[in-house]
Amino acid sequence: MQAHLLRIALGAALSSLATAQHAPRHLLCTWQGDPGTTLTLSYQSTGSKPLPARLYWDTEPRDGEVAAYRQRAEGETTTIPGLAGRWIHKVELRGLEPGRAIYLCAGDPASGISRELRVRTIARDERALRFVTGGDMGTEAPVRAMLRRAAATSPDFALIGGDIAYANGKLENVDRWDTWLAYYSEEMVRPDGFAIPLVLAIGNHEVDGSFLRPKEQAPFWFGFFPQGGQSYFARRFGAHFACLVLDSSHIAPHGGEQAAWIDRTLEELREVPHRAAIYHVPLFPSHRELEGAYSALGRQHWMPLFERHGLEVAFENHDHSYKRTPPLRGGAPAERGVVYLGDGCFGQRPRTVAFGSRSYLREQGAWRHFWQVEVTRERMVCRAIDEQGRVFDVWPEDAEGAGEAAALRRTLEMRYGVPRAWVEVDPLPTSSGGALRLRFENRAEVPLELRVALRKAPRGARFEAPPPQRVAADQRVELALALELPSPVDVEKPELELELEARGVEKTGRALYFTSILALKVAR
Fold it and tell me: In terms of Cα–Cα distance, which of 472, 477, 470, 473 is closest to 423?
């Protein structure tokens, strides 16, 4: 009797284990076709053998009771070479009604059924369209919080501008994707319970090698997210909005076939009231230099097409900062031009922005954020929302709430890189150390408190940090810094770094923060 009960218990345990192995996870909705009449569900399972890709769906809630769903659909099960035991299931629904709620669950009763997912196709009527957009996310805790903030705005979908899980196209980093997919599927649910479909552009951290690599070097971006199989494509959302999802030379070059396709596609969409583009590397960066190679390629191949066809907004990423340009033509402010919004800080730690005037920038800052966008026939309104849920920028500048957002923005701490022209540091006298001389000129309009620290050096290095130095506006100071090293360093690559920090407060009360990392050289 005991043996019989043991066999029953063991069988139940093995059955439970098998169900757990094959249970659907990472349920996401994307589009391969018209967002009003199609929907693609993807999910994953694990196990030694693949199971059919299957979902059960209806236009009424059925609470996951498989027998109650009136429709069933099957798709394809694939895998990524090198990821043994992981199966990716994709099922596309077609012929749906625009603006209709769909209730679905995925899997198989014998191996595990997902929870019921609620999702809505995109409407084609006059109701406002709402979406969120941003890029440069990762898998740290702020990403989950930012996704929760974004979902609270009740978007119809999300546009993600690349650099998503930072797996770099490497199979050994698949756990980063598991973390990100869990974050998205758990947090990107609207207050009314509807899941938020997503559209993804490709970024350098999706690709093993970053730029100009074959598709096989971006296995997760192509393998996990069914979007039609190309690295650039277009989607039309309802009656009033269309978006080009572009590839900033990660798989496809900026020019050539992609540029020709942009030209044709914008012409085909000329009757759509509001047209935008999303991509990773910015044409007009706020952190990096303007003349970066891939930014320059974007301005060479894409900017003339955007301007010729009257693109309204370009959503840019990559720099881990915030920016808004005025309308630009040929890189200069113009009454009628393209507005560039960015710069990809949807979870990543913000980077500093450039101090001083960049003529192509209207606003900039080092703040985590995403953009919430609302589109009607009459206008498109974009709102930047920070990690506290505050709206700190609104475009157009005459839209509701723009004045309040500008007032808030003027109170937020500004984080800048120390301009190169402000700092000089002499080479280290010998490969074993010596007295360093550092000169700092404060060209800000307020006093700054300067701090210097040793950021990188061999173990055992001795460095006596000077006390904080108050530097008045327009004042130049010189500091003598003693650095002793336990053994001589490589003269060619000494791998020594100082960190500079300078803080001040504007007359308005806004805090200013400057920082820079200085690589030290050794005198020959």
Answer: 477
**Which residues lie closer than 8 Å to 497 by C-beta, 6 or more apart?**
454, 455, 456, 457, 517, 518, 519, 520
Residue 22: phi, psi to the nearest 5?
-95, -5
Q: Judge whether 129 and 167 are in contact, CB under 8 Å.
A: no
Instruction: Report angle CA 223, 228, 229 to the nearest 5 degrees.
Output: 50
Is CATH 2.60.40 correct for 2-67+90-118? yes
Structure tokens given for 107: 């899997």
Sign of CA dihedral 266, 135, 370, 331: negative
Question: Side chain identity at 489, as an amino acid letter?
Answer: V
10-residue mean pLDDT profile of the chain (524 residues): values are: 46 43 90 98 94 97 97 98 96 98 95 96 96 98 98 99 98 98 98 99 99 98 98 98 99 99 98 98 96 98 99 99 98 96 98 91 98 98 98 98 97 95 94 92 97 94 93 96 92 93 95 96 86
Q: Count of CB atoms within 10 A of residue 159's CB?
A: 24
Q: Which of 89, 90, 84, 78 is nearest to 47 (CA)?
A: 84
What is the sign of the dihedral through the CA atoms of 342, 201, 84 and 11? Answer: positive
Copy the structure tokens of residue 247.
């590839």
CATH of domain 417-519: 2.60.40.10
Structural domain boundaries in the chain: 2-67+90-118, 129-387, 417-519
Pick one of 3.20.20.80, 3.30.360.10, 3.60.21.10, 3.40.640.10 as the CATH number of 129-387.
3.60.21.10
Phi-psi bin for 269: left (phi > 0), alpha (psi -120 to 50), beta?
alpha
Q: Which two tokens stand for residue 197?
A: 């479909």
* Domains 129-387 and 417-519 alike in fold: no
